[in-house]
Amino acid sequence: MQSNIPPFSNLQASRPTLEGLSPIFSRIEKEFTDAQSPEATRQAIESWNEHRKSIDTWKSITHLNFSQDTQNEAYKSERDYADELSPKLIDFDVRIKKLLLASPHREALTKEFGPQAFALWGADVTTFEPSIEDNLVKEAKLSAEYVELLASAKIDIDGNIVNLSGVAPYATHADRDTRYRAEQARWKFFSDNGEKLDEIFHELTQLRHTMATKLGFENYIGMGYQRMQRVDYKSEDVALFRKQVLEDVVPLAADLRKSQAARLGVDSLMYWDEAAYDLSGNPKPQGDEAWMIQRAREMFDDMGEEIGSFFNMMADQGYLDLDTRAGKAGGGFCTSFADYGVPFVFANFNGTKHDVEVFTHEIGHAFQNWRSRNKPIVDYLWPTYESCEIHSMSLEFLTWPFMELFFKDDAERFRRVHLTESLIFLPYGVAVDEFQHLVYANPSASPDERGEMWREVEQRYMPWRQYGDLSYPASGRRWQLQRHIYGMPFYYIDYTLAQTCALQFWVQANTDRRDAMERYINLCTRGGEAPFQELAQSAGVISPLREGCLKDVVKKAREFLD
Ligand code: ZN
């Protein structure tokens, strides 16, 4: 099964041109308009699938090339070309989706593919009209400008020049003064570029509001939800979830911060202490990249044939890019090449425990994509984002019994830190979400007013936060390092919704590991064939959008951490 996956270096994608696309568009559109039966429509969907897979493969390779080397002019111009072409491709897809939504064979097709495809297409057609094409191109350019600005960072910590990913080992160091200097240096970069960062985001908010009103939305919030394809919940449901985090998790998180301060021996936990959990320093993986990959092979082999053989294929065929290099974009992600049915994992190793999380998180995404690579329509290859993160974040917990491989004697300490961070993350994640609701509900706000919005939200959800003399983040600009806020509006609550599901997997795996693993693999195999709450419920977890989803998790976490 896996031997037919070529090495990554052999992947090819044909580069679409407008001239080349136009006859393809006409042919596929004609297949749809001519289709007299469900069978003929199904065949037209097949042609459309092939076209979309080929475009997706080219786009993935283009964006990956750029992320691997943001300084390469050829990659950059190809990325720009892809961004410019994108609205034409969306325009075509929206025309097809409209045809399908109005198809006389819709009922038969719904029987075959399930209602989710129609729900997704129904959302997609509301987010595009040719009149916003130029706005979309501009939006992509501004987002790219932010990515490039951050990738250009050369941060001087004690004479060592690092990029933003490279700050982490200092910012999580056991020595308090080192952590403080790391935060000073990090925020000096943001402060030096503050005007530009404010300006890019200000333009993005104006642009997004303009697009939303052109499409008939009151403001960007409605458009943002549709763009995220949230087909089974609304902003009121998300507000209920945030309220549960505020009531159930914030008190626990505040207690965890207090015991953290006690362990660190500090009177008052400052911003630069937040990433260090005790005086022995955060648990670190005990080897280099090659050693880590070897340990990951052992771990996945032990977790079962499905995931074991999959990971070995990724490692053997070159579908991992893990080291940190100058000019490489920050962060980590998983992408995939639909023509080949194979995913790719991109990361920036920095010697911290975060490196282990690349295996336990990004491989969760990759494994889901692999399990569902043969779904009959492209829209089901990945689920919507909040569902995607269930696969990644749950795997972080399901791999707990194997952490000795990476951390040796520090494994138990790692597990405690991981659980603590997962819980403390929830208030931060919902703060990012509430902030974005405020931003887009008030499009005429100034950058300083946005700073005020962030401060208010931050104080409510993270009452322990103290920036001391770090004046730039204290001015309400901490959110500027959260790249989702620039590049993918409203994409953040997804992590907290998924974390709530993952924590339930943790509770369940503690009583029946085999059953939890089986449900996990089944969930991965479903791919994106159902909306979030249905996927969650089918995997045996309470939807985070329902009252009471966090109570048991918080109780069990207190017991474990006490
Ligand atoms: Zn993820």
Question: What would you note in describing this structure?
Answer:
Strand 4 and strand 5 (342-346) form a beta hairpin. This protein is mainly α and 562 residues long. The longest helix has 31 residues, at 38-68. It has 24 helices and 5 strands. The structure holds zinc ion. Zinc ion binds next to helix 14 and helix 15. The site of zinc ion has 4 residues, from helix 14 and helix 15.
Strand order of the largest sheet: 3-5-4
Topology order in helix (H) and strand (E) letters: HHHHHHEEHHHHHHHEEEHHHHHHHHHHH
User: pLDDT under 50 segments (min length 5)?
Assistant: none
Instruction: Describe the largest sheet.
Output: 3 strands, mixed
Count of alpha/pi helices: 24
Small molecules bound: zinc ion
List keywords for this structure.
562 residues; mainly alpha; three-stranded mixed sheet; two-stranded antiparallel ribbon; 5 strands; 65% helix
Task: Itemize the secondary structure elements and their pairings.
Layout: H1 18-34, H2 38-68, H3 73-101, H4 106-113, H5 116-124, H6 133-151, E1 155-157, E2 160-162, H7 168-171, H8 176-192, H9 194-214, H10 220-227, H11 235-264, H12 289-303, H13 305-316, E3 320-321, E4 333-337, E5 342-346, H14 354-371, H15 385-398, H16 404-407, H17 411-441, H18 447-461, H19 471-477, H20 483-487, H21 493-511, H22 513-526, H23 532-538, H24 551-561
Parallel strand pairs: 3-5
Antiparallel strand pairs: 1-2, 4-5
Helix pairs in contact: 1-2, 1-3, 2-3, 3-5, 3-6, 6-9, 9-10, 11-17, 12-13, 14-15, 14-22, 15-21, 15-22, 17-18, 17-21, 17-24, 18-19, 21-22
The structure holds zinc ion.
Residues 361, 365, 389, 392 line the site of zinc ion.
